[in-house]
Amino acid sequence: MSANFWKSRSRASAGGNSADKPIAIDLFCGSGAVTTAIKANGYRVVAAVDINRICGVTYRKNHPEVIFKRRDIRSLQPSELAVAIPTGKQLKLMAVCAPCQPFSSQNRRRGAADTRAPLILESVRLARALKPQLIIYENVPGIAASAIFQRLKRSLASAGYILGIPQRVDAADFGVPQRRVRCIVAAVRAPGRIKDFALSTQGSERVTVRDALADLRPLSSGESDPYDPLHISRVHHEITLRRLAAIPQDGGSRDSLPPELQLECHRNRDRGDFCDVYGRMRWDGVAPTLTTGCTDVTRGRYAHPRDDRAITLREAARLQTFPDWYRFAGNRSQIAEQIGNAVPVEMFRRLVSALRRSYPDA
Ligand SMILES: C[S@@+](CC[C@H](N)C(=O)[O-])C[C@H]1O[C@@H](n2cnc3c(N)ncnc32)[C@H](O)[C@@H]1O
């Protein structure tokens, strides 16, 4: 497996889903980034669930062999997933990337007040029945200090699982050209022993914005690459183009705007607020955390390092380490949403690989 399998232009490198492989299930699968990462680690993903319709269409396009359930996980019966597990085979891995908004520092309804917070506990109900050897949870760091995390630990214990110590990881340390700080924690079936799995970042070279984007066609506002439907620049207003032209290439910020181009709403704010909007990415750095607004320069440091425009969907997909062969369903904003909400494929691929070294049973 290549260190940068996401750079491969061919699906062949993605790993098949053949019968003799260890079995995995993906809960809250979204558009399938985690499934892609698990398959690249040699697992056969047999079933996945997500409530979102467009995510489901994308998921089926890329993983047609997996049984995808478009459902609210709360109404999903374990038997609906169990039928996908071949007779006589044990479920080795369950991936659980529950919605992170309830635990995010940017959410004012943070914590138990957000009705999405308890969704993660559904994994325990399913684990009781399906008995995966290893469960991997991915979320934002805020989850580790939440009351839900303590409930998760207790209910996993009563279901016969031991939850490990949450590990804070930055995708940029795992081959992703993007800063994205996440929390990873694993649970193993007792009497298995939970070790702190070795998340060594040593020897892992930083992948930069240049590595990810430099080979793509330069575009101006409104221009598109005829060979790549995702590499199309949004059409910027004239005032936005004047602002972008005034911001230095390769990492410049809106600090450089002359007074007549400054935004009224930014003038009276502290420098800390919104200071990244209209900012350009740096070629030899990593991108900031991509959100669902990642192709909009008014939502963060999402301007191209050189071209006077926001990054395209292709560029956003590359910064999330989706391989170019990955197909997305939906309109532009639905695709941006899927990309911004995804788990970086390469980060998860490397984490699963590290976990497998720590838990050879999985
Ligand atoms: C962090 S995203 C998952 C990312 C995904 N695993 C990936 O590989 O990129 C959380 C997902 O939870 C889904 N979700 C939210 N509420 C749900 C529910 N009640 N039942 C099932 N899925 C739900 C959302 O549609 C979203 O795709």
From TrEMBL:
Tell me the Gene Ontology biological-process terms attached to this UniProt entry.
DNA restriction-modification system; methylation; negative regulation of gene expression via chromosomal CpG island methylation
What's in the keyword line of the UniProt record?
Answer: Methyltransferase, Restriction system, S-adenosyl-L-methionine, Transferase
Q: Does this entry carry the keyword S-adenosyl-L-methionine?
A: yes
Q: Which GO terms describe its molecular function?
A: DNA (cytosine-5-)-methyltransferase activity; DNA binding
Question: PROSITE patterns under this entry?
Answer: SAM_MT_C5
A Pfam family found in this protein is: DNA_methylase
Q: E.C. number, please?
A: 2.1.1.37
Q: Top enzyme class of this protein?
A: transferase
The UniProt catalytic activity note for this protein reads: a 2'-deoxycytidine in DNA + S-adenosyl-L-methionine = a 5-methyl-2'-deoxycytidine in DNA + S-adenosyl-L-homocysteine + H(+)
Q: Which domain of life is it from?
A: Bacteria
Where in the sequence is the active site? 100
Belongs to which family? Belongs to the class I-like SAM-binding methyltransferase superfamily. C5-methyltransferase family.
Task: Please give the name of this protein.
Answer: DNA (cytosine-5-)-methyltransferase
Q: What organism does this protein naturally occur in?
A: Azospirillum lipoferum
Q: What is the lineage of its organism?
A: Bacteria, Pseudomonadati, Pseudomonadota, Alphaproteobacteria, Rhodospirillales
